[in-house]
UniProtKB/TrEMBL annotation:
Cofactor: FAD
One Pfam family cited in the UniProt record for this chain: FAD_binding_4
Upper lineage: Bacteria, Pseudomonadati, Pseudomonadota, Alphaproteobacteria, Sphingomonadales
Record's protein name: FAD-binding protein
Residues in FAD-binding PCMH-type domain copies: 50-228
Length: 497
């Protein structure tokens, strides 16, 4: 792999047999995996361009086991990489060759549901969709719905602050998590937040959501569940130009309308999804918007007309409302299957994740087309248009020398463009290893230093998920350590704190 990761600690690797034996004592039975063939399963996450097997995998079943594993690793200076379902698209669960990979898949129970208070308490290995399925008989659902919701887990959603097609109106994971149980690297078990709307004191839940496994390991999550809206209406709107669709998105939000979801696909993505799912998408358009409205029937009926008028002013060539619930679900089935469908267009694709101001959508999409021509690589666009969260899929063939490197450079330029126009490096996939070296594009040195101080407060020895999120700096200075040369501290006259 070309990606630079922290150098392996030979002292840890030399003790591998003893480490495996100690972990087997903590998690007996089939809870420890150390055979090379079985470790291959864990060598990568959803960012498959980078892979390496872990030293050992441990699959605890109880909070006490998680605590004991982390306490052991802390006492012996062993790195730990937490992992959920492995669907991360930023390399957030990429293993290290000298690290314990802590898999949370066996934490897969829904512990309780309180319909009166509208909360559910779940373990981190519960899949996103399973929460909605559990509460749907009583007319409730869990709002964040990533396209991978059938596989991705709540713990991973917390780590990456995942979103989904309905995040425009109902928010990301951070807006739907009320409390967490977290185990720190030294084995300390903490409870953060509570089952009520706003907990007192520092917002440590908000800090933990999106921390990408660098601060602690989540073992329990209290999520907000919502009653299903009275009505849901979906519109399928085709445009002759990508710019027209982008401007329509900006105009809808500018008019004060907040749909439950507003997704956009360009021609390559439309054709791939239609061939894959047969959702009924028009094939003679350059861009497609799926707009969903929910709430009282009268409100939805009124807003359907308003959005249709805005779309017409922006050059829409087709506008169709779902005739029934089955058709509405087909509209969304095509969108949710777009990522795997694009796999038909090229042997490989590189999925990006950046966020921009909605009003800059037409400009950014036009500039991405120019970049595509410059790099000689195709790109299919499928994204959460309503909140400006772009997901360009860069098409390449890893078997052709240099194409992966070209795809990476193309992706980096897209992310630089996002920041240039006032956006950010990620919307929901996280930084991981993919965007790690681009962090200085968005953050000044003082900003990164402050973030690293937060990391050090929770994980002083930097054993949790090292090599992720922060640029790899020389001499471990990013972890607040002081380099000692020749047995002497630099500038010995300065006070140390």
């Amino acid at each position: 792999m070309s990606l630079v990761m922290p150098a392996p600690d030979s002292r840890v690797l030399d003790r591998r047999a003893a480490i495996v034996a100690a972990l087997c004592a903590i998690v007996p039975g089939e809870g420890v995996i150390d055979e090379p063939r079985r470790l291959k399963v864990y060598e990568s996450d959803g960012l498959t361009a980078y892979r390496q097997p872990p030293m050992v995998v441990v699959l605890p079943e109880t909070v006490e086991q998680v605590s004991a594993v982390l306490a052991y690793c802390h006492a012996h200076g062993i790195r730990v990489v937490p992992r959920g379902a492995g669907t991360s698209l930023s390399g957030g669960a990429l293993p290290l060759v000298d690290a314990v990979l802590l898999g949370m898949a066996k934490f897969n129970r829904i512990l309780s549901v309180d319909y009166a208070d509208r909360v559910a308490v779940v373990q981190p290995g519960v899949t996103n969709l399973a929460v909605t399925e559990a509460v749907s008989p009583r007319g409730f659902y869990y709002a964040p719905d990533p396209s991978s919701q059938i596989a991705c887990t709540i713990g991973g959603n917390v780590a990456e602050n995942s979103g989904g097609v309905h995040c425009l109106k109902y928010g990301l994971t951070t807006n739907n998590v009320l409390a967490l149980q977290v185990v720190l690297i030294d084995g300390t078990v903490l409870r953060l937040g509570g089952g009520h709307l706003d907990a007192a004191g520092l917002d440590l839940v908000g800090l933990m959501v999106g921390s990408e496994g660098l601060l602690g390991v989540v073992t329990e999550v209290t999520v907000r569940i919502l009653p299903r809206p009275e009505t849901a209406r979906a519109l399928l709107i085709g445009f002759a130009t990508v710019e027209g669709a982008g401007q329509c998105v900006a105009d809808v939000i500018g008019a004060g309308i907040v749909p439950a979801g507003m997704e956009m696909m360009d021609r390559p993505a439309i054709h791939a999804a239609e061939a894959f799912v047969h959702a009924g998408y028009p094939l003679d358009v350059e861009a497609l918007l799926i707009v969903e409205l929910d709430g009282p029937a009268a409100e939805c009926d009124h807003l359907v007309g308003e959005i249709a008028a805005i779309a017409t002013r922006n050059g829409a060539t087709t506008c169709r409302a779902a005739a029934d619930e089955a058709e509405r679900m087909r509209f969304w089935a095509g969108r949710k299957a777009a990522f795997p469908a694009v796999g038909r267009l090229a042997p490989d694709y590189y999925c990006m994740d950046g966020t921009i101001p909605r009003r800059r959508l037409p400009e950014v999409l036009a500039r991405m087309r120019v970049l595509s021509e410059d790099y000689g690589l195709g790109v299919a666009n499928v994204f959460h248009a309503g909140d400006g969260n772009l997901h360009p899929l860069i098409l390449y063939d890893a078997n052709r020398p240099g194409e992966l490197a070209r795809a990476e450079a193309f992706g980096a330029d897209i992310l630089r463009l996002c920041v240039e126009v006032g956006g950010v490096l990620t919307g929901e996939h996280g930084v991981g290893v993919e965007k790690r070296e681009l962090m200085p594009v968005m953050f000044a040195a003082a900003d990164l230093d402050q973030q690293l101080r937060v990391k050090a407060a929770f994980d002083p020895p930097s054993l949790l998920n090292p090599g992720k999120m922060f640029p790899l700096l020389h001499r471990c200075a990013e972890q607040g350590r002081v380099h000692i040369h020749g047995g002497a501290l630099p500038h010995p006259d300065l006070p140390r704190f």
